[in-house]
């Protein structure tokens, strides 16, 4: 990493930050942290690192913001389908925006899975470009500044870690790669088990239509978040809307004595 940073410097940092903000699994935070720790040795200027990080992140976020503004929720579904927890990916982001609005962009880059999803959600909710730019730049500054500050504060530890990796060479990289692969496999197995459990009690759209045609035979509960419920024009007539965060307090509103179908998007 040090050799590549020395050779390509700011260009490598820009490409890495842009790639991560476009949704690719690139550990740009670690790269920026190392750049901050070894800035003097590598001949990197901290203001230059801050500038290229801001430019790369802003371009990536801007692209997703525009796509979210034009395409809406399908963009969120596409992004979250790449997540290890796609079923909670959108809901977590919507809940964050529901509580804090655009201020969520200040911390989104520190939360795994939300970095790429937050900008298109802001676009989908028609938040003004000027306000999006302001808060997104604030989040980028906090993200980059924290990486550089940690690199400078723990310079000796970063140097030791790099020396350790260099000493172990391919063996050290292989160990890290195997550990990461094992964790990903475990998450995938958990996800498949959850899907199999859902399939046992899933009701298809045609089946639900037939049930709804029989007056009083089924209760439908809409579990979408408030943001999703307001943004999506499609609603099932007669459905009881209970956001996930309010379910414990409001589940008594669901009539007893007949089947209940719950759905979300």
Throw out a few tags for this protein.
14 helices; 67% helix; 3-stranded parallel beta sheet; elongated; 4% strand; 265 residues; 3 domains; mainly alpha; single chain
Structural class call reads mainly alpha
Q: Strand count, sense and closure of the main sheet?
A: 3 strands, parallel
Looking at the chains present, what oligomeric state does this protein adopt? single chain
Strand content range: under 5%
Morphology call: elongated
Q: What would you say this structure looks like, in words?
A:
The chain is mainly alpha-helical and 265 residues long. The chain has 14 helices and three strands. The chain folds into three domains: 167 residues, no CATH class; 33 residues; 59 residues, no CATH class. Helix content is 67%, strand content 4%. Helix 13 links the parallel strand 1 and strand 2. 27% of the residues are buried. The model has no long low-confidence stretch (mean pLDDT 78).
Put the structure in a nutshell.
With 265 residues, the protein is mainly alpha-helical. It has helices at 2-8, 10-21, 28-37, 39-42, 46-71, 73-80, 86-100, 118-124, 129-153, 155-168, 170-200, 205-213, 226-231, 247-250, and strands spanning 219-222, 240-241, 260-263.
How are the SSEs placed, and which strands pair?
Layout: H1 2-8, H2 10-21, H3 28-37, H4 39-42, H5 46-71, H6 73-80, H7 86-100, H8 118-124, H9 129-153, H10 155-168, H11 170-200, H12 205-213, E1 219-222, H13 226-231, E2 240-241, H14 247-250, E3 260-263
Parallel strand pairs: 1-2, 1-3
């Amino acid at each position: 990493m040090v050799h590549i940073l020395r050779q390509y410097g700011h260009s490598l940092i820009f490409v890495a930050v842009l790639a991560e903000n476009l949704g690719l699994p690139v550990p740009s935070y670690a790269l920026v942290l190392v750049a901050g720790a070894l800035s003097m040795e590598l001949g990197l200027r901290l203001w230059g690192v801050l500038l290229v990080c801001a430019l790369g992140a802003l371009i990536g976020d801007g692209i997703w913001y525009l796509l979210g503004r034009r395409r809406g929720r399908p963009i969120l579904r596409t992004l979250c389908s790449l997540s290890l927890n796609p079923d909670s990916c959108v809901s977590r982001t919507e809940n964050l925006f529901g509580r804090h609005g655009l201020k969520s962009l200040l911390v989104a880059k520190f939360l795994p899975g939300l970095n790429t999803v937050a900008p298109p959600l802001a676009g989908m909710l028609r938040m003004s470009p000027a306000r999006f730019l302001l808060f997104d730049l604030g989040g980028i500054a906090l993200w980059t500044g924290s990486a550089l500050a940690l690199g400078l504060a723990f310079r000796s530890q970063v140097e030791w870690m790099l020396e350790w990796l260099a000493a172990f060479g391919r063996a050290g990289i292989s160990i890290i790669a195997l550990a990461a692969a094992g964790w990903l496999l475990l998450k995938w197995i958990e996800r498949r088990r959850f899907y199999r459990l859902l399939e046992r009690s899933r009701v298809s759209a045609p089946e639900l239509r037939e049930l709804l045609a029989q007056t009083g035979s089924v209760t439908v509960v809409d579990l979408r978040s408030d943001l999703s419920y307001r943004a999506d024009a499609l609603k099932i007539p007669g459905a009881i809307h209970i956001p996930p965060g309010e379910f414990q307090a409001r589940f008594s509103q669901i009539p007893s004595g007949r089947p209940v179908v719950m759905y979300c998007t």
